[in-house]
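pinging the channel bc i need a second pair of eyes. not urgent but kinda urgent?? the chain im working w is below, pasted from the shared doc
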Amino acid sequence: TFFIGGLVALLGTPFFFFKSNLILGTIMEKGSPAMQFAKPYLLIRSLALYFTMICTLAPASFRGIQDTKTPVIVAFVALIINAILDPILIFTFGMGLSGAAIATVIAEIVAAITYLVILRKKGMVRVRKIFSIPAWDRIEPFLKGGSLLQLRGIAINLTFLMVTRVTQSIDKTGVAAAAHALAIQTFQVGAVVLFGLSLVAQFVIPNEMIETNDEKTGRKAGGFTAARAVVNRLMSWGFILGTLLGLFQLAILPIMQKSTPMVEVRKAARIPSLLASFYQIFNGLVFIGEGIMIATENYLQLSISTVIATGGCLWALNTLPQRYGLAGVWLSFGVWNMIRLVGVLIHQQFTGRLAPRNLAKTASIQDKS
């Protein structure tokens, strides 16, 4: 995994560094005032792409051994380092946005080295193996399963890329971009928690699907039926927490708006922030539902669902912002998440391994055997 990540970084770093104008041109119009700030930031971040890849891949290795604490601790330490360095580099040394990029790079380097040291102590990685070409039979399963998830990742990145591009094109004053950033911050207050529940589903469901016998009582535990009950509980919690988090976001909205002194930015961010809060009601179902799809290895359906949702979002982005401005961008987000929710419901009710009719088929086969 780290070898493939290194290969991607080896190819990506020079591309990001030497083709930065081309890359930024996909989300910004030529002559955009934001280009002078975005280009140095991208150039600095591109130099640490390999460390970024390690920070992205390493948590999955720990999840594979059901260690959820280590990635959280490492990420928290990196966050603290970033938070300390940001004001020092941005304001004290007067480096501005470039200082923010350097702070992020330093935090990622520390996190990446920490991950590698811990993985090495656990015997899960050898440093010299990272730089040697692995045998095909060892990476073939990873590439087959990973390619479908990569398709999903490409669709998600394309969605956010186009959202950023459309937002940048709404006005050249930067008000829409700033208001969008404020709405994103409001959205992330709840999204972080719901994404955590998605990771919980990826751990809990596979373990629950394995049927075991208690040697003392002789009772059976786990199995597909028990896993379905866990799915139902997780989805219920997703709906409840999504609703509560949406209400919480509404409650702190006045505080979030005070983060900018610009009245026009506050005004422009109001409707998107309200939509961001409303969307949490069904985002809990979407995040957890897609975590369940990963847990049951339904990668193909997950990818197809995401690609279709991205298509719907791109259509909406081509239509709604022209009429409703930044609010139209966030309405397009709603289209994207609603289509993903439909994909989740289809999976859980009809096509998934834990769907009622498939559970009935499994039980029938077991009875016959």
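so DSSP finds 15 helices and two strands in the chain. and The first helix runs from residue 2 to 18. — does that match what u expected or am i reading it wrong
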